[in-house]
Amino acid sequence: MSHPINAFMPAVFVPVHDLKRAIEWYANLFQRPIVPQPDQDTHGIYIFALEETEIILDRNTWGSPPTVMFDADDIHAAHQFCEHRPHTVLTEAFTDEYISVFNINSHMVCKANRDLGLKPGRPTNAHLRKISRILVHTDDIEDTTAWYEAFVGKSAGSDPRFGDLPAILMDRGPHLLIDDNRLSHSQSKYFEQLQVETRTNPIMIMESPDLDAALAHVHSVGGLVKEGIEKRLGVTCFHFQDPDGNGYLVVEEVDKTAQ
User: Fold this and answer.
1) How far is C-alpha 92 from the geometric centre of its chain's CA atoms?
2) Matching InterPro entries, A to Z (predicted)?
3) Which of 118, 123, 133, 152 has a Cα at 20 to 30 A from 49?
4) Spatial separation of the C-alpha atoms in residues 120 and 255, rounded to whole Å
């Protein structure tokens, strides 16, 4: 039998306070035209369809950590599996004509029931070429790594690019990188809705063929950059935040054979 949770993260929900402002800001960041989406105002989300993994701006989750979506082929089998995994939050599965979905901790597990009509994803832009890693923040790297290994049914290995931090290679899209703050250098925040204190930034790592040009582009759209280009774990990078405080780490692009 196949594992009930697929090793693929099709989307990340990014909490925003003002959806209209966030759409305009990310459209400038990704150099994309704004295309009104069905029920955008009703559902409070806007989808940027990037390669493999979408960024979904979500005003409904403002005040909660970002939510990483994992893919499943059978939502009931996935939910039964999660019932026996350690968790603090596990919702019931919800199904409509488009999706079947439930949440476990700060993650969503989703099965698409029909074509959602989204156009195929494209690279972000010339400056921010792709998403290469999605981060998991932890204070207990061994327990957290073991949880995610069981969750997606794959073993972690040392990521040679990021100080040998544990990484789980996904079957598609960005890989999962587990960080005990050696890379992130971020402060924790208390989220009352989930009653947890956790670090959330950076949410993900983007790659750029030219860090100087990428930094200038982020500055031009009003991104908050505190340190500029620096080295973390031997990697040249810079960290920036959107107007709502959601953080991203940008590193220099490398060949696939070197990842």
Assistant:
1) 23
2) Glyas_Bleomycin-R_OHBP_Dase
3) 152
4) 23
d(CA 173, CA 6): 12
- Domains for the chain: give ranges and CATH numbers: 11-112 (3.10.180.10), 130-258 (3.10.180.10)
Question: Which pair of tokens denotes residue 99?
Answer: 């999706």
CA–CA distance, 115 with 35 (Å, rounded to integer): 18
What's the CA gap between 11 and 30, in Å, rounded?
16
Structure tokens at 199: 């670090």
Lowest mean pLDDT among 78-92, 106-120, 179-193: 106-120
Listed in sequence order, the residues at least 6 apart from 110 whose beta carbon sits closer than 8 Å to its beta carbon are 10, 11, 69, 70, 71, 72, 75, 99, 100, 101
Task: Check: CB of residue 65 under 8 Å from CB of residue 58.
Answer: no
Q: How confident is the model at residue 259 (pLDDT cuts 50, 70, 90)?
A: very low
Tokens 């800001």 identify what position?
25
List of E strands, the chain: 11-15, 45-48, 54-58, 67-71, 94-95, 99-104, 107-112, 130-137, 157-159, 165-168, 175-179, 189-191, 196-198, 204-208, 230-232, 235-241, 247-252
In 188-254, DSSP assigns E strands to: 189-191, 196-198, 204-208, 230-232, 235-241, 247-252
Strands 54-58 and 11-15 turn out to be parallel
Q: Are strands 54-58 and 45-48 parallel, antiparallel or unpaired?
A: antiparallel
Other Cβ atoms closer than 10 A to 2: 9
| pLDDT tens digits, one per residue of 132-162 | 999 999 999 999 999 999 999 999 999 989 9
